[in-house]
């Protein structure tokens, strides 16, 4: 895309800010930015690759905020992130090799199903009360879940944050703030890998990607600060609103 109109820039920027904010506190930002990129005129495969630019910027901004707050201490970040990287590499390769006429309906149907599932199954987003963190090696199903989440993230990305929160909270016993901190680190690492694969296959349009990414930095910084200062009860309510809003936007697309 050689140039962008003012309307497209405003639309992508708005989607980027909102996506960055909700990604920092829950997930589902790509349910806004991926359709926005496709509505801007990008084919499904290039929109899928370009979307990773914004996700990388957003996760980096959120990670910096959470790390500065000390919320990654005493958490086995590498052991958690490693399985997702394996899955993400496989998912990104699969997506980059899938024909566009097949990829688009897969992307759209996956996003709709994810949004509906996470709206109906609200409890999946609510981690348990603070308890001792469980190492992934102590729960084999956690490793399986992380591999699956990584593959989904490499292939589609949209809704990945919700899946990771479910694994972190439900299986590894991380509270919501620590889950979000580890999610930021995990998403940054797997997105860096996925973006490299999409770049190698010529599936990234930098101009719209940077617009979404810069706007996402603003939203992610605001969202991370909000997550750190907000009581758990209110934060959980915002998570549920984020899921419902993303579902409505996608279903109306």
Kindly describe this structure:
Helix 1 (6-25) packs antiparallel against helix 2 and helix 6 (140-155) runs antiparallel to helix 7. The protein has 253 residues and is mainly alpha-helical. The protein has one domain (6-252). The model has no long low-confidence stretch (mean pLDDT 80). Helices cover 76% and strands 0% of the residues. It is built from ten helices and no strands. The two termini are 22 Å apart. It is globular and about 45 Å long.
What is the number of helices?
A: 10
Give the strand content.
Answer: under 5%
Shape annotation: globular
Give the SSE string: HHHHHHHHHH
Q: What is the total tally of β strands?
A: 0
**Percent in helix:** over 70%
Count of folded domains: 1
Helices and strands: which structural class?
mainly alpha
Mean pLDDT, to the nearest integer, reads 80
CA distance, first residue to last residue: 22 Å
Alpha carbon gyration radius: 17 Å
Low-confidence stretches: none
Largest sheet: none
